[in-house]
Design a protein that fits this description.
Strand content: under 5%
Largest sheet: 2 strands, parallel
Helix content: 55-70%
Strand order of the largest sheet: 1-2
Radius of gyration: 31 Å
Length: about 375
């Protein structure tokens, strides 16, 4: 119920005049003869932010009549000893509290900073509120302004290094932030939450990708959409982000499945021998198990060019691999024949000059024979 606090009740009754100057407001608190607690702060914030129009909030420099925030905050600051500010923000999960605009949020943030000495504590927002629309507004404005305090939640070992841009607050290092935003999305705010993540991904793509690599989507499809947009940025190919290898190394620790998928995307997008050599070198910087998974899980259309280049440049038995692939799945025969046909002008003898994709010329005939053989077997 609103105005449970005697202070907020008296303020509402006396209206703007009680904040005309420090002496008047101090006398009101003195006459009430009570200390200031968390409930008082909450009710005063609701009165000043949600029950008052922006035009009725003033400072010492304004000539118009309204609540003088500077007077109120300066006096309250002398009375706020022992206040638990996490609790204050938690108690703003209140049906009477709402933010009409970003300006409202800025006023709230200003009040918190001047009363508590720190930014709004993000930890109080990381569980789903009953007042979900206000919680979403807090995240929308707070993340945009990078003005929520995550210092108690994130640690330096989560950082990717000085070459990777991150928010000053460390917000997008916090996996609980991803989870609560996805819960809000599942509660009917999916479009607004997606906008938050898209904006964040444009600024901090490394941390957004790695965050989604470690959380479960409760059925909103936002995780899949953001990964679809961000994964191709870190293939290591020309035009991708220079932080690709940093992201890959972290993916190996937190979600090896996505690392394998990233290499498959890179192979699919490769368009030259040089591209495939880059991918090969990246793969060789990881455990052999990663390469094995890429080869086993990749479609033959993704892998065949990679195998051809490895056969040409490195010690690699292409014919053995192709026979193994055909034995495992005879239906790939058609894809292999199609590859040979489509790339006939680019195939060349091993280590000879020219050509876009390397190949062992003597294998072309046997590959075609093998492909036809396995194609026929399937239908016998």
């Amino acid at each position: 119920m609103f105005h449970e606090s005697r202070i907020a009740g008296v303020m509402a009754t006396l209206s703007f005049g009680c904040s005309a100057n420090v002496d008047i407001f101090s006398k009101i608190l003195k006459d009430l003869n009570q200390g200031v607690n968390e409930d008082d702060i909450v009710e005063i914030i609701i009165l000043l932010i949600s029950k008052t129009s922006d035009e009725d909030l003033t400072t010492n420099n304004d000539t118009k009549v309204g609540w003088n925030l500077e007077v109120i905050v300066n006096v309250l600051a002398t009375e706020c000893h022992g206040i638990h500010w996490r609790v204050v923000l938690q108690k703003l999960d209140n049906p009477f509290f709402f933010l009409r605009s970003e300006k409202n949020y800025q006023k709230l943030s200003w009040i918190f900073v001047h009363l508590s000495g720190s930014q709004l504590p993000a930890i109080s927002l990381l569980k789903l509120w009953n007042n979900k629309s206000t919680q979403l507004s807090m995240f929308t404005y707070g993340l945009r302004a990078d003005s929520l305090d995550f210092s108690e939640i994130v640690s330096s070992d989560q950082q990717l290094g000085p070459d990777v841009k991150m928010p000053n607050s460390g917000s997008w290092l916090c996996l609980s932030l991803f989870s609560v935003l996805l819960e809000l999305a599942a509660s009917g705010f999916s479009i607004m939450v997606l906008e938050i993540f898209v904006q964040a991904a444009s600024l901090f793509p490394e941390y957004i990708l790695l965050g989604f690599a470690q959380v479960i989507d409760p059925g909103t499809c936002i995780r899949a959409e953001i990964l679809r947009r961000t994964l191709p940025l870190f293939t290591g190919l020309p035009g991708s982000f220079p932080t690709s290898h940093v992201v890959m190394k972290r993916l190996l620790k937190v979600n090896a499945d996505l690392l394998v998928l990233l290499f498959r995307i890179a192979l699919k997008r490769s368009s030259s021998v040089e591209d495939i050599v880059v991918i090969n070198n990246l793969l060789e910087s990881f455990d052999e198990a990663v390469l094995k998974r890429v080869e086993e899980e990749g479609a033959i259309e993704e892998i065949i060019g990679f195998w051809c280049v490895r056969a040409d440049r490195f010690d690699f038995d292409l014919e053995k691999r192709l026979k193994g692939a055909l034995l495992k799945n005879p239906s790939v025969a058609r894809s292999l024949v199609s590859f040979v046909t489509n790339q006939s002008n680019n195939l060349r003898a091993r280590l000879s000059g020219g050509g876009l994709l390397s190949f062992i010329s003597s294998l072309i005939g046997s590959l075609t024979t093998l492909s036809k053989q396995y194609s026929c077997r399937r239908y016998e």
